[in-house]
Fold this sequence. Notes:
With 308 residues, this protein is α+β, with helices and mostly antiparallel strands. The chain is 25% helix and 38% strand.
Amino acid sequence: MIADDKTYYLIVNPVAGRGRVDRAVQSIIRKLESMAIPYRTLTSERSGHAIELAAGLDGRTAVVVAVGGDGTVHEIVNGLTKKDQLVGVVPTGTGNDFARLLGMENPLDTMDAITTASPLRLDIGRIEIEEEGGGKIHRCFVNTLGLGFDAEVAVRANKMKFGSGILPYLVSVFMTLRSFRSVPALVSWNDGVIESKLFLASIGNGTTSGGGFILSPQAKPDDGLLDLCFVREVTRMRALRLLPKTFHGKHVAEKEVTYVQSETISIELESPLSLHADGEILSEKVRKIHVKLTPREGRFLVGPKKGW
């Protein structure tokens, strides 16, 4: 159990999961007060604000609790000055893929977990992005990166005003299929290279993205490896046949899919594409990325039903 003589900082995204967060916050507060645990609530007011809030902490708190979705966790990890600061997650977002990985299935189940769960060191991914026009972006991620079709789906899903879980992403899949075009790409990793048109590239530290698409079925967030799922250009009909297989991770055996594990992965694109990290759109004009892993750099509270 985490020492109860230090402050818990709740960093809350009030619009996560279409705004269904107030009840979760009140439940957490009641739990902390019943255990006489000191706490402070910090509210994110805009995109990127959770980065600033996390950066303002001194690194000596008992635990920083992300009350939101995968994007909230993503911002907090990128803001913390000490990456080994202990982080807990209360899932109130749309997809909540990282929370499920940690064994935090829903807000009610995590009330006890944030005060009793065991800390575990997990890998942190780092990405360097070069954009069309020369811009550069550096970020950390905890769960997955998506480049191409995966990211275009995330762009659409993040703009939707209805639904939670996998529903907004499924709707976005069908909308995106009508307009998406694959792009010639050069993909390299520790001991291999692919030169082909890229439909989708998912790089996983965790197993799922988009609320439950199991794009990286062999991924483990503490094995020191990134899992690359590269899908070559496919027709719309073929994409629709592959889609159901991603719910069970069976797509990796298909001829259009290359699945490898590596410590580093690089991708160069002939034309710009969108990219998301943990569901957050980092750029819509990516030309090059380099991804590497820092083994067991992060510390997270993990529930008894962790998903790996």
